# Entry
Amino acid sequence: MRMQRILLVTVLAIAFAGVAFAGDYHNGATLTCSECHVMHASQTHGYNADGGGFFGAPNGENEGLLRDEVNALCLGCHDGQTAYPDVMGNQTGAVIRAAGALNDGTDTAPYYNADGHTLGSTELVPGGNGANFPDGLKCVDCHNQHGYGGGTNPWRNLYANGQVISYETAATPTGDFDVTQAASLNYSYDNLTFNKTTLNPTLSAYADYCKGCHTNFHGAVGGSEIGGSASGGFIRHPATDVIIGGIGGGHSSSAVFGSHTNNVLVQTDGTNLTPSCFSCHKGHGNQNAFGLIFMEGTGTVTEEGDNGTAAKALCGQCHVQG
# Structure
């Protein structure tokens, strides 16, 4: 079975190499139905009139008419390929991935289970009120494979806990979208700006998305999850509402944040800066526990941070203590 999966992944990777991408997600011309689905769980030749053309031989009978089980099918393109975002383990190419790396559950260096999201995991979700994924964590638990997010420009296929994380491709943010990417089809962290939109300036669509699973980890300041008030006293780190340096009194400092050569990503309206989930964590994970970004502020930036070697470096991006 394992060898069959490897062969399928190899064939799919070759088949998909000719696909032309027109957007940041699977939609319309960016993916054809037959590359993931097969009508009768059986195929012995391609779609050309003479039977030629690449195709992925089905691996058993799978729900949804899929050619393989979900994670193996997704990784056929999204693991080890240069033409598509590589989301599993070591990066193919030099891109510093915005979301970092998933791990496969083998719990081996350098991507241990503790370092990020583990495909296939049935463990309880941290902060998830006792919930888990009884069939194992799948790519489609977080991403809509067809790209239909129920709104305008869903970013990276992400489900967003009832709302779409919207994006634009523009040199300068307009303020109307949650994410601005300077260049299309570029998945590097330094291609992105996370915006405090003019419509919802105190909202983090990204944090609301993460809250879909990590229920207790995000909420409005003063609420049961975060506690505190505009003057501090939080019980969990806020992921929206709070401006870096806005409280004062030795908490966070915009001057400290601005003094670094390298910075973690934050939300901005062009003036005010607000941390959110992606400021401290890689969405998929990296080689640090919890997918934390040890960004000290100097040195070469990697998916793990820069010269920072511990969580203290990350805290020092904004905070003056220590």
